[in-house]
Amino acid sequence: MDPDSAPMPPDQRHRRTHRPGGDHAFSRISWLLRSFPDAFSNVLTIRRGGDPMGKKARRIALTGAVVATLGAGFASAAPAHADDAHYYILIGGTCDGKASVYRPEWLRGGIARVVDYPAGAAGAPNCDQTPMDQSVAIGHDRGRQVVQDAYHENPNAEFTVVGYSQGAIVANMVLNDIADDQLGVDKTRFSAKLFADPMQPPGPAGTGISATLPPGTGLPSPFGGYVSFGAGRPDFNGVRSIRYCIQTDGICDFDPIQAAGGYFAQHWCYQWPRPTDQRSIMGDTIADGVYTNTSVRLGKQDCWGGPVHP
């Protein structure tokens, strides 16, 4: 797949739809604007040519500003033991520890296994208050267990690890363990779909916000836990994978000038349905069987019409 191509034309629109359990997008945006005014004012100052903060400090401020992801309802499917069974290890983003962002029909008959973890964002409204670095560590441990349990339930099945935003960080760590033969599973049966990955390594599709700073840089616990986790692997040593990043999404395509605006405009567009056909990026790609072992750059999406719920 051409890294500059997208599963759908970039001019197709997305819209928000209300689903039970969703948080208010604009309440989080308002909180971020109130909590991180310096970060956004610095972005505007940079655009005018000023530089009141050093590059590293500015990135740290923006790291703290872009932490919320949204979710909706999902229930795990019953176990199956057929050799053609396909398990999906689902890891939600910030404030979505139940992985409710993923809709059952997107799995196309696959079996859901949810990594239930805090998905924390200290200080964010309507969100678990576990500092993010601790949240990711808990998610890593639980993700390892979910992978092992699913594999031992049916070692002849196929398994896809799916992560979005903070969940993609957790997925990177779990995939590293699978790639390095640390979990006692057959890695040739595993694959990965990562959306808006903060650890996206530098490349034509963009560089993740976490990949722009050395690991550990930022505000560690107990000061929010908003730290860099470094860059992810370009590939996972035999585990088929693909990363999806919408252009200017400040989480996976970080730029000090565009990060904040791009985050608000694009970061939720992976999940919302297009008004033209009621399909979504995640719905089109999670179970499509396409893996390039690269990052795919998606064109900008217009998903700001409709209700304020994801």
Automatic annotation (TrEMBL):
Question: Which keywords, in A-to-Z order, does the entry hold?
Answer: Hydrolase
Q: Which Gene3D superfamilies match?
A: alpha/beta hydrolase
Q: Which stretches does UniProt call biased (Pro residues)?
A: 1-10
Name assigned to this protein: PE-PPE domain-containing protein
Q: Identify a single GO molecular function assigned to this protein.
A: hydrolase activity
Region described as Disordered: spans on this chain: 1-22
Record-linked InterPro entries: AB_hydrolase_fold, Cutinase/axe, PE-PPE_C
* PE-PPE domain segment(s): 112-254
Q: Which Pfam families match?
A: PE-PPE
